Amino acid sequence: MCGIVGAVAKRNVVPILVEGLLRLEYRGYDSAGLVVVNDKSLERVRSTGRVAELAEKSLKTNGTIGIAHTRWATHGVPSERNAHPHTSNELIAVVHNGIIENYEELRSKLTGEGYIFTSDTDTEVIAHLIHSYYIKNKDLLKSTQSALAELVGAYAIGVIAADNPDQLIGARKGSPLLLGVGEGEYFIASDMSALLQVTQKVVYLEEGDVVALALVGYKIYDAKGGAIERPVNISELNNESVELGEYQHYMQKEIHEQPQALADTLESVCNSQSLVPGIFGAEAANSFAQINRILILACGTSSHAGMVAKYWLEEIAGVPCAVEIASEYRYRVSVADPETLIVTISQSGETADTLAALNHAKSIGHKHTLAICNVPESAIIRQSKLRFLTRAGPEIGVASTKAFTTQLAALFLLTLVLAKQNGRLSAKQEQAHLHDLRHLPSAVLAVLKAEPEIAELAKHFADKHHALFLGRGLHYPIALEGALKLKEISYIHAEAYPAGELKHGPLALVDSDMPVVAVAPNDILLEKLKSNLQEVKARGGQLYVFADSETKIHSSEGVHVMQMPEHAGFLSPILHTIPLQLLAYYVALQKGTDVDKPRNLAKSVTVE
Ligand code: AGP
What range does the domain containing 283 cover? Predict the structure, then answer.
C-alpha cells in the first residue's frame, strides 16, 4: 500500500526512482509520480496509469535528487491531481504514506494563512506546513521536524526543496521507511526490494526518526530530535528473490516456492533432535511457563492461519485459544488476562490493524506477546517480546500464498513446544512430528504436480459468478482461505462454510450453476463430510472435491475429484491449501484479471 523511493546522488536519479517504484508495484497503487530538483526548480511528473507510463512520461526528466511515490487512494479519488508528490509554492515537494488524522483542521488553518490547495489529499497539508516554516528559517530539517510535531496520525515521508539540491529529508511514524546506504549516494524507501538495484546496505529507521540525507552522508534524529546512530545492516534479500524468473506471475512463482519456504522456515528445527521454546526468543521459556491461554490477532489470510492453529493448540497442546480479527479487537472493550499469550500473525509485519491490536493488547495489560512474521525489523516484530520469523522470502503477489503455509508451519511448532511443556507430547510423538515436518516440503512438492489437472478444472469456473467452499474441522479455515484466494484474484464471489452448516441456509443457493469446492481429507469428519456432499449432489450442484487418496470419493456425474497424494495428519491443512491456491490462480488466468495486483487491493495494508 503506497510506496516511497527517494535518492540523492551524483548521477541522474530518475532511473533509480522509476526502477524502485517498479519494484514497489506489488504493494498496490492507483497512481504514481516523481519529482526532482533541476536547476533550482522542481520538475514533477505524475500519472494515473502504471509505473511504466510514468517512466515514459519522465524520459526527459533529469536531476540528482528526487522523491517518488506509488499512491493507493485514501483521501481523494485516484487522479493525477491527487497523485504524489505534492508541492507547496513550487518550493517544497513531499511524498507520504499513511494517514494524517487532523488534516481537516490543518487544512483550514493553512487556508486561513493563504495556502491554496490543489488536491483532496491529506498529504498536501504536510507540504504547505513545511513550506510555512521553511520560508522563515530556510532549514529543511528543522522545518520538517516542526511540521511533524503538528501532525496526528501515521506517516512515512520524503521531502525536498527546490532551492536545496543537496538535501533530502525522510521521516517515519507508524509507516515503514528505511535508509539505503550506497557509495557516496543515499536513498530512502518503503521496503528494501526498491533499493536492491543500488545497495544491500540498509538502516532500519525507528518510530519517530527523521533522517537528513546529503551527498556527504546522512544524519538520523530520534523522536526527541537528538542525533542518534542506527546500525547499518546487510540485507539478506537479493535481486533474484524479487524477480519473476521463469514464471508468468509472482503468485505462481510463490506457490511453487512453498517447498523451499517451508524447508527454510523449519530448518533450525528439522536439523535438531528436539523442540525447544528458544526458537520463539530468549525469553520464551519464561513467558510460556506463565501463560495458560492464547489470543491470536490477525487480518485476512493471516487470521485463517490463526484459525487452523486454534484446532492444533486445543487438541495437541491443551491450551485454550481464541482467534480474533485485529480490526475488531482493537476497538472492542475486552477483559485483559495476564496469563494470556497474545500472538500476532502478519506477513508484512506492518498491517495497521494488527499493529494497533497488538498495542491495544499491551495497553490493557497483556505482557506476553509473540509475533509470527515474515519481515525482520518490521514494526510488529520490533514491538513484540517474542518472535518467530517465517522464512518465506519476499512475497510480491498481493494474494498471500507461501506466507500462509509458512505461518502454519510456525504455528504448528508453537503447538508442539507448548504441548511438550504441558506434558502432552511424549518423546516418541515429538520424533514422529519432527519426522512429518522434515517430510513436509516434499509432500508439498508432490501436490504441486497436480498443477495441469487443476488448470483444467479451473476452466469450469471461468463463467461462474459465485462459488461455495466447504470444509470441516481443521480444514474449515482452509475452505475460508480458498474462498478468499478465489474472490481476491478472480473477482468471483466465493463463500466458505463449515460443511455441517450447509443445511442451515447456504444449501438454498445450490443449483447446477453453483460450483461447490470441498476440502476432503481422510480424517474423523470424513463420513460427515460425505453426507454433506450428498446434500449438494442431490440438488444438482457441481462438486469439486480435493480428496485424500484413501477417502474413496471418486469422480462421477457432477462430481470432479482431485486425488491428493497422501494424508498428512495434523499437517493436512498445509497440503490442502496448495490446490486451492492453484485453482484461484488458474481461474484468474481464465478470466484475464491482474493476478498479482488485483483491483482495489494492496499488499501491505498500512492504513485502517
Ligand atoms: C491475502 O491474500 C491478503 N491479501 C490479505 O488478506 C492479507 O493476508 C492481510 O491483509 C494481512 O496481511 P499481513 O499478513 O501482512 O498482516
Answer: 250-448
For ligand 1, whether the C-beta of 354 sits within 6 Å is yes
Residue whose C-alpha is closest to residue 166's, from 213, 110, 201 = 213
Residue 371, SS3 per DSSP:
strand
Same domain (yes/no): 134, 156: yes
In short, whether 38's Cβ falls inside 6 Å of ligand 1 is no
- Say if residue 76's pLDDT is above 80: no
Q: What is the mean pLDDT of residues 327-354?
A: 94
Residue nearest atom 10 of ligand 1, based on CA coordinates: 300
Same domain assignment for residues 193 and 55: yes
**Domain identity same for 458 and 391:** no
Q: Given a cut of 70, is residue 297 above it in pLDDT?
A: yes
**Residue for cell digits 475486552?**
334
CA distances, 458 to each of 235, 258, 339 (Å): 39, 21, 47
Q: Residue 65: what pLDDT?
A: 98
User: CB of 301 closer than 6 A to ligand 1?
Assistant: yes
Residue 467 located in a structural domain:
yes
What's the whole-number mean pLDDT along residues 155-182? 94
Given a cut of 70, whether residue 1 has pLDDT beyond it is: no
Amino acid of residue 378: S
pLDDT tens digit sequence for 260-278: 999 999 988 887 888 999 9
Whole-structure pTM value: 0.81
Instruction: List Cα–Cα distances, 155 to 122, 176, 607, in angstroms.
Output: 11, 8, 10
Percent of the chain at pLDDT exceeding 90 = 78
Position 523 in a domain:
yes
Q: Ligand 1 pocket test: which of 347, 383, 395 has the largest number of ligand atoms within 8 Å of its C-beta?
A: 347
CA distance linking residue 317 with residue 297, whole number of Å: 19
User: Which ligand 1 atom is nearest residue 348's CA?
Assistant: 15
Assess whether 337 and 352 both reside in one domain.
yes
344, 456: one domain: no
Give the Cα separation of 358 and 366 in Å (integer): 9
